[in-house]
Specification:
The two termini are 27 Å apart. Strand 4 and strand 5 form a beta hairpin. The strands form two sheets. This protein has a four-stranded parallel sheet, sandwiched between helices. The chain has a two-stranded antiparallel ribbon with strand order 4-5. By secondary structure, it is α/β, with parallel strands linked by helices.
Length: 190
């Protein structure tokens, strides 16, 4: 039997809106972000909600580096607490049509995956709560229970997202011509 899967982008695709704002608020509550930074993320979230992602590699690189710098030295446990605070809100924002698509793919024996630039620690529990097969998110390198501020694998955005999906498809034996992908963004064209 040929295996196939459906891949779902997170922001403005699987969920309504973006994940960075609730993540930013939770980070602020736990001392990882300032009021000014959260206000900037709120503005970015509004712009993204109104105009979408234009696939700007410079903005993506800046965001990636900012997040990696911010978590450098943080414990895995502190990130789990952050994820536990954010996940219920994200679950409540899953689009009804996304839930229907996930169910349709399950009825056709397809695996379902979230594929997002968001942190693995955020997308993995969300996928589990939705009964999905799994999630591919950006992973931070961990040494001795703390994040180093470096990536552990590709930044799952643009070409990095394509690389992550291709590796997963190879590992799981998916026939890519039979797979589906859902996104709102030109950055996912690769």
């Amino acid at each position: 039997m040929t295996k196939s899967a459906a891949f779902f982008d997170l922001d403005r695709t699987l969920i309504s809106g973006v994940s960075i704002l609730p993540l930013g608020v939770a980070a602020w509550r736990q001392g990882f972000a300032t009021n000014r930074e959260v206000a900037g993320w709120a503005l970015d979230a509004i712009v993204f909600k109104l105009f979408g992602d234009k696939g700007d590699a410079d903005t993506a690189d800046t965001t990636r580096q900012d997040l990696l710098t911010r978590i450098a030295g943080a414990s895995v446990e502190s990130m789990k607490a952050l994820e536990a605070e954010v996940t219920p809100g994200l679950i409540s924002r899953v689009r009804p049509e996304s839930r229907d698509l996930i169910e349709m793919h399950h009825q056709h024996d397809r695996d379902t995956w979230i594929v997002s630039a968001s942190p693995q620690a955020l997308v993995e529990p969300l996928a589990a709560s939705l009964g999905m097969t799994g999630a591919i998110g950006t992973r931070g390198e961990i040494v001795d229970g703390h994040y180093t501020g470096n990536l552990d694998g590709p930044f799952v955005y643009g070409p990095g997202k394509a690389e992550a999906v291709e590796k997963l498809a190879s590992d799981r034996g998916y026939e890519m011509d039979l797979c589906y992908a859902y996104s709102d963004s030109s950055s996912d064209l690769p």
